[in-house]
Here is the input.
Amino acid sequence: MADVPRIVSTFNHCFLYVSAWCAPKSLQLNATKTEVLWFGTPANLRKIPPGGGAIRAGSCNIDPATVVRNLGVMIDAELSMHEHVSCVTRACFFHLRRLRSVRVLLGRDVTVRLVTALVFSRLDYCNAVLAELPAATLAPLQRVLHAAARLVGDLRPRDHVTQTLRELHWLPIKQRVEYKLCLLVHKALVGHAPAYLSDILTPVSDVPSRSALRDASRGDCVVPRTRLKLGQRAFSVAAPRAWNRLPTDLKLTRSTPTFKRLLKTFLFQAAYNN
Here is the structure.
């Protein structure tokens, strides 16, 4: 990659500038805790020469990492999210094993509450980053959901869990991701989301050349064009696509509590009534 030396030089100058800004304010950048991650396809990442992607931070050389943690999300250089899914899966199964050892003492209702607090809080945290991932990548998370259903229903390892999932009204992983995407779009459209999210989304009715189209009256959002498979996973693309698949009356709902209730019902029916 011909731009690597230029990018490295730019980062080196940025680090020096930030360090100079921090010094008079009694702040200090910790180079030993600074990480660098290069994003790209496997083919492009292999083009970076050995040691060519290192960043100079003061007297330290920061070698590129393959995975970094940001706000609890494990981000890898290829944005495959395999490492994040693995970390979430391990944490969830750890708590499920602990709960199974005391399942007989808890009862069904208490077990459901604990699973929601200890397992679902991890499955649903920042799960919008999992949008449009292959089913094989999401499969470990779905196995966590099945294990939780077996724990709550006191089922054997080979028992089917579909009926238990229906009774508990638990959405599959794919639908949980769609739920988060659609909820973020709804909040952005009704003015309850940060500006950095609202600015990404454009209702069709706000486009002068398309305001008279049927899509505008249905409450659809503009889906940007992308030539890359990775681009389809971007929030600006995946979120409008998920939103546009909703029924019109649901998209035009302005009350957030009502929207959440109707959205879960719609996704639940789509998941289990096919």
